[in-house]
Amino acid sequence: MVKSPQSWAELHVTAKLRLLRMHFESNVGHIGGNLSCLDILLTLHHRIMRLEDQFVLSKGHAAGAYYITLWTLGKLHDNDLASFHKDGTRLSGHPPPAGIEDISFATGSLGHGFSLAGGLALAKQLKKEQGRVFCLTSDGEWNEGSCWETLIFLQHHRINNLTLVVDLNGLQGFGTTREVANLDPLAMKFKAFGITTREVNGHSADELESILNVQDHGLQIVIAHTHKGQGISFMEDRMEWHYLPMTEAQYKQAVRELEEACAAFSVNR
Hints:
Number of domains: 1
Distance between the termini: 21 Å
Low-confidence stretches: none
Oligomer: single chain
């Protein structure tokens, strides 16, 4: 069920605040890339996916955002989040191979998740099962040859139940994607394979929902334009927030900015 604008905004801010708290309490980085894809994950799991659908998080370093999304669905609890990235946890820094029903594969070795999603989609197609497969990759992940091999495979086998979402924030571990290995314009590369490719504002739930609800024949790709560290002034579009954990002062500032943004939304409605 689609939430009202106010309730959706509240969910969005609540999820962000809980994500920041979880990372701060565990003193863990990778916050920037989690914030760039959180809107995508929330939209997919709250507004798009059905029981028969499956999801693969290929950009495994955004596991925190995925755990928070599952928390908003009641599938994980506060005591789970409190163990994030700690000894003995099932909420490791990258998605674990077992222990969480919604996670089918351990991912995070970049370039592997899309191939695994392709296998799920092929299996569904061969067995004539209902449901779609969704996969989220990073943009830097497309430096990996296995991603391009998967496109060849999927097109050859005419896979028609897989939607790939690319979190295009323009930054990766050692700089901008243009500086490290330029693939711009990425959409043109995908279209050259004959694949339906659409571009969208990755921080707009309404735009994402409109695009992701479309079911054409064949593989579909959605390029979601996002900002690393979205919504936090000192993180946004800053490469170093691919890695850094927050200090206590930074955490308090981030929380204050989110609370102020939420208050402003409520006043302006």
